[in-house]
Amino acid sequence: MKRYIFSTMLCSHILILVIQAGAQPAPQIVNIAARETQSLDGLWKTIVDPFENGYYDYRRMPTANGYFQDHDFRADKTVLEEYNFNTDRTLRVPGDWNTQRESLYYYEGTVWYRRLFDFTPRDGERVFLHFGAVNYEAIVGLNGEIIGSHVGGFTPFNFEITDYLREGENSLVVKVDNKRLAEGVPTLNSDWWNYGGITRSVNVVRVPDTFIRDYSVQLAKGSTDRITGWIRTDGANPPSGATVEIPGLGVRQAVELDESGYGAFEISAAPSLWSPEDPRLYEVKITAGRDSVEDRIGFRTIETSGTDILLNDRKIFCRGISIHEEAAYGSSGRAFSREQDLVLLNWAKEMGCNFVRLAHYPHNEDMVRLADEMGLMVWSEIPVYWTIQWTNPETYLNAEAQLTDMVTRDRNRASVVIWSMANETPRSPERLAFLSRLIDKTRAMDDTRLISAAMEKESAGPDLLTVHDELLDLVDLISFNQYVGWYDGSSEKVDRVNWVFDRDKPVFITELGAGALYGNHGDASERFTEEYMEDMYTRTVDMLERVPGLAGVTPWILKDFRSPRRQMCDIQDDFNRKGLISENGGRKKAFYVMQKWYEELRRRYEQ
After folding, report:
1. What are phi and psi of 407, to 5 degrees?
2. At what angle do helices 589-605 and 530-544 cross, to 10 degrees?
3. Can you point out the beta strands (E) in 347-493?
4. 302-305, strands of its sheet edge to edge
5. Against a cut of 0.90, is the pTM above it?
6. How do residues 39-58 score in pLDDT, each as one tens digit?
7. How far is the C-alpha of 134 from the C-alpha of 364, rounded, in Å?
8. How far is it, in rounded angstroms, from Cα 558 to Cα 539?
9. What is the DSSP letter of 255?
10. Strands 202-208 and 125-131: what pairing?
11. Model confidence pLDDT, tens digit, residues 449-479
């Protein structure tokens, strides 16, 4: 296995660190918020390293006399913990570097982060280092030793650090690299800002020697009176049994665990069902040996019948909106806090939504847990976006890992009703094989939710549109993006368009919309005015009423968001202006068109 050197110039000091490449994170520990944690959030010292001066193949390191030698630097003690980052250049964690420091606004490359923290070990426990997300590649060192690496910018990961910690002060260094990669997920092309940094919280997590690593608690598929699930412990000496308690249902269920620490269960119970109108959550406590974890879990069913989506056996219409994980107000930037998430979700509720599409990647865990509490159904997807390298085995493994992390983290959230595999991916046999494998993986992990992808429309005749995609045979919804009246003709075309489908499945329009600069007024025929956007949305609502089998829509998008592809001076200025709300909270006129229609739909479906 190839070894690397980390040698970082820190003012007057050069630091050297060897990396044994390829060290992977430990299996994900779910529900970190229920654990004993030590937060490492705050200001971290940083060094910007665009030429990767701190990252060399060890065989090319020169000796004092200028020659190269094959030397194993693992024997050296000139490592990170012996020096401080002698710099006042700090960045906030969690946060992106692009909006914290003007010089890093467009930066794509490496930034080194360092944080010192005190720790006191205790007997009989294990310790993990948990990252909510780092974009895009993270290589992590603790006290001069590399503990592992992770690729993927939107999912959590953790490393066991029990044997790396020391009493007192500890030195944590993270090499963060957000360069876009052709083989990456997402790939080189995307239409959102490539925020770099440690974008979600970092925690030191204490658990017993054997602990509850993962669990599933939800209604059995197709049932409203049977709760099924499983528990998985992690440790050398797993207990022989565990207990599941749901006080609100009078449940206390013993669960037998096998030698590996795994056990499944089934409970007869009839919970009040979670819904947007009544988002009931139950306190759930799981105990195994010395460890216990508490969670708040809702119970509901989601399925399709012909062209209907059924929530708890009742036909619903998904009154939705698409959302990027970008903060409102100020300099925008990656949203990372519960307070920022609340702003976005409350805007969706104000519009009349009962559904949000979290595009185009898994959002932070608080976003999904808030959706649980607020009664918002969720479409959650991975960033398989546009032109992924379909035949590259490493690209597939990357996508599957992100999918696995997403499902693992959020499988107990009642709000998540749809797992999405991709967005606007051009049709090909290679793409179909790639996405088919992801769908099979998802159904194997969780067969209780709907599966889909945002596909693309095509013509079926003059002013007649449809979706013809081989993927339709594998997914539960006819879900697609369409921009009639914006990229496809002018707003008048919307009046003429009709739709036809050859599958008996619910139709879900995952994107539609137009752009407007908030406060830019003019004639309804003038693009990028609020009047054009309002007129197009008004016509689109009439068109949507003509779509056969329509079961949901998520217009693009809740708020204006940053994208370097959008460069129209004095209009876009690095913002995609399709938001129904401006980046600073101004409601565009089209917002009220959707708000009015959603109120009409709410009354129609609640009769």
Report:
1. -65, -40
2. 20
3. 355-358, 377-381, 416-423, 450-456, 458-461, 464-466, 478-481
4. 302-305, 308-311, 314-316
5. yes
6. 999 999 999 999 888 765 43
7. 11
8. 19
9. E
10. antiparallel
11. 999 999 999 999 999 999 999 999 999 999 9
